[in-house]
């Protein structure tokens, strides 16, 4: 039996909604980084016991939130002992704009996984980019390195387009299947 953890920060609830969908679909434990950028000792233990770790953060000013970065910097203690070596990793980011420089955030998450000696799980869903494509389609934002989500900046998480929610669900399923193979 594999164990997956989704660790995320969310300032205003949008990333939290996506984290919940990914976690439910991946049968994962959900760990929220608090507003001070901290998680509990129990949470660190949960991460240590996980076969796959999924990183989630909003894109703020073209990168992860400072709270997520504080968590990442704190993980240097684990890094030093190679505690997460050979685990699976995946990532997602939510931003206000369709593009919004989310790729910068995903690249950061991928690099963080590589620093820890992990193996990165891609999205593996063809992009919906034809004339007929809509925001209700799977992977309509055309991601590949991870899950991209856009949340209108003047609305709460309920306004996140259906296609992005469906993509989050599919990504969680993929993570669960790969973790089961890897464990
Ligand atoms: C400080 C700050 C910086 C932001 N920077 C970006 C950005 O670089 N690109 C973008 O598209 N949206 C940006 N946004 C919008 C957020 O990414 C968007 O509202 C997102 O849904 C917030 O997720 P959350 O509710 O989980 O915090 C920014 C928002 C804040 C508060």
From TrEMBL:
<keyword id="KW-0288">FMN</keyword>
<dbReference type="Pfam" id="PF03358">
    <property type="entry name" value="FMN_red"/>
</dbReference>
<feature type="domain" description="Flavodoxin-like">
    <location>
        <begin position="4"/>
        <end position="176"/>
    </location>
</feature>
<keyword id="KW-0285">Flavoprotein</keyword>
<dbReference type="InterPro" id="IPR008254">
    <property type="entry name" value="Flavodoxin/NO_synth"/>
</dbReference>
<dbReference type="InterPro" id="IPR001226">
    <property type="entry name" value="Flavodoxin_CS"/>
</dbReference>
<protein>
    <submittedName>
        <fullName>Flavodoxin family protein</fullName>
    </submittedName>
</protein>
<dbReference type="InterPro" id="IPR029039">
    <property type="entry name" value="Flavoprotein-like_sf"/>
</dbReference>
<dbReference type="InterPro" id="IPR005025">
    <property type="entry name" value="FMN_Rdtase-like_dom"/>
</dbReference>
